[in-house]
Specification:
Number of strands: 0
Mean pLDDT: 76
Order of helices and strands: HHHH
Strand content: under 5%
Low-confidence stretches: 69-78, 84-93
Protein name: Stress response protein nst1
Number of helices: 4
Length: 194
Amino acid sequence: CIYCRVFVKDENLEGKISATQVKRKWENLKQKYKDLKCPQTGVSTEDGEVTAASWKWYSVLDEAKGGRPSITPPNLIASSGPGVAVTSPSSVRSTSARTGRKRKDIEELICEMEEKEAEREKEAVEREERRWREMVEREERRERERQEQEERREREAREREERRDREMREREERRDRETKEREERFLQLFAKEI
C-alpha cells in the first residue's frame, strides 16, 4: 500500500519495525483520526494541539477509513448555464472504489507483515530449540567423556594395584626361594662338616 510505504519512509522506519508494531501504529492512527474527526466539545486548540486541518495524516486516513475522497466535490446545479461541471455518481464511485482498494492494500500489508513476523518468531523458536538440543547433546557428550575418563582411571588404578600385588608376590616368592636355597646350602655345608 502506498500510504503505508509513505508513512514508513517519512518516519525513517524502513526495516526497523515489525508487523505487530505497524498494526499497533495503524490502530493508534485510526484512533487519532476518530478523535480529530469528532473532537470533544469545549476543547481549545490555542495551545498548539493538532487538528484535523493540521495533522498530515488526517486526509489520507479520512480517504482510506472513510471510503470517500478527502475533498468532497460539491454538487453543482446545471441551471447556472451551459458548460458548468456537474459531478457524476460514477466519478464518486470510482474514487470510492480506489479508496476501498487502498484500505484493502493496507490490510493486506498488515496481514503480510504479521505472517512475516510469525515466520520470524517460528524460526526464532526453531533456532532456540536447535540450540537447546545442541547444548543437551554437548552436555551428554561431556558426561560420557567424563564417565569414560573415570572408568579409564579406575581401570588404570586397578591394573597398577594388580601389578604391585603381582610384583610383591614375585618378590616374596623370590625371597622365599633365596632363603630356602641359602638354608639348603647351609645344611649341605653343615652336613659336610660333620
